[in-house]
Amino acid sequence: MTSLVLPSLRRHPWPPILLAALMAGGAGWYAYAQLAPGDRGVPPIDSSSSYEVTGVQVDVAGRTADEARTAAWREAQRKGWKILWARMHGASPDQAPGVPDSTLDSIVAGIEVESEQVGPHRYIATLGLLFDRGRTGELIGGGTSTPRSAPMLMIPIQYGGGAEQSFESRTSWQKAWARFRTGSSAVDYVRPVGTGADPVLLNLGQSRRPGRIWWRMLLDQYGASDVVVPEVYLERRYPGGPIAARFVARHGPDGEVLGTFTLVASSTGGLDHMLDEGVKQVDALYVNALGHGQLKPDPSLSIEEPEAPAADLIPDDAADPLAAIVEDVSTAQSAQFTVQVETADAAMLDQAQAALRAVAGVRQATVASLALGGTSLLSVGYAGDVGALKTALAARGWKLEGEGATLHMRKGGASPTPASATSPPAQPKQ
């Protein structure tokens, strides 16, 4: 096959333009194959309705295997309840109040078998328990000592094979975070699925981006206040052999390192178990940072309203002091609106703000949410009637629509032309 193709290429060289077209087409096909929707997206486990306690060890004997298993599961429920209560209150499991087995049966949503050994009269296992959040919350009470973090957008990045990946394809690191139940964690993770625009918006380049404007747009889109970037560096000693992994817990748009550690899997088959353990330890690093006040949202990611300038003092020779008092009263009684503006670029946003500020009675027209290429939000303070504001904007070529506290502003308004009152109505012909 090779001996036939290569000579023909040397005898009949392809034109450079045709070669460039084929290479571009091949690159496009390769990109599509890598980013095909079927190869992306790992929905996380819905753990919003359960607390999880893992690693509960039991060793119970009985007359039969079923009797030993039943007694062991009841013992696991008692131990799991004490561990959960101690975790939520920051106390010792011995201080947990006793709960009847009938109540535990009603609040335990499921039992996961991590490992077990079953004999004719003995049952040895390591179990995980899921407690229903609604029913268990009544017994735990509201006086928990564990703080809850602000919503944190999570971008898991895996390094391996000379490349890095986040949501471009299904990685083992993303799957491990999808398996992790966040219900018992003090960190409120926002876990993207990895479909749609996630691979384009949430990648390694974005995690290293220092600019705050793009970060604000992303956090607002995903409903988060800050970002955490858990990373794993995989090193395979040889095919099928041990895998060493270095885990790094990063926080914030500047990639602050909160901690690192290393784990080793004996073979490829132990990769998932090692990554699951890595997720738990990374979460522990974030929870520890939260307890020490290091996981607070970055102030530069929040959009703050600028402080109003201090009012100038009225000079002694003021012509009309009463006018200044009336001005202060009208300012105090000014209404606050949220105006939606379609901003294709920054120039359109500047034009909208200039039009609003030119209207008499407008005290404030500041950006509350910036979305170039979409719909931005302006916070407007106005002392006067909304109808007068609409008329004034229409005279400047803008149309203000809607009622209440949220209005929509768009280009295309026109000055209303009053109907002629001098022309008498036409009389019907007799």
Number of strands: 15
* CATH-scheme architecture of the largest domain: 3-Layer(aba) Sandwich
Overall form: elongated
Q: From the alpha carbons, calculate the radius of gyration and give it in angstroms.
A: 32 Å
Kindly name the structural category. alpha/beta
Helical amount: 25-40%
* Ends distance: 99 Å
Q: What is the ordering of alpha helices and beta strands?
A: HHEHHEEHEEEHEHHHEEEHHEHEEHEE
Q: Unreliable segments (pLDDT under 50, ≥5 consecutive)?
A: 1-37, 310-314, 321-332, 414-425
The main pleated sheet reads as: 7 strands, mixed
CATH class of the largest domain: Alpha Beta
Provide the CATH topology of the largest domain: Rossmann fold
Total domains, how many?
3
* Percent strand: 25-35%
Question: Taking all residues together, what is the mean pLDDT?
Answer: 77
Report on this structure.
- This protein is an alpha/beta fold and 430 residues long.
- It has three domains: 50-140, Endonuclease I-creI (Roll), CATH 3.10.28; 152-300, 3-Layer(aba) Sandwich (Rossmann fold); 326-411, 2-Layer Sandwich (Alpha-Beta Plaits), CATH 3.30.70.
- Helix content is 35%, strand content 26%.
- It contains 13 helices and 15 strands.
- The strands form three sheets. Strands 4, 5, 6, 7, 8, 9 and 10 form a seven-stranded mixed β-sheet that branches. It has a five-stranded mixed β-sheet with strand order 12-13-11-15-14.
- The model is unreliable at 1-37, 310-314, 321-332 and 414-425 (pLDDT under 50).
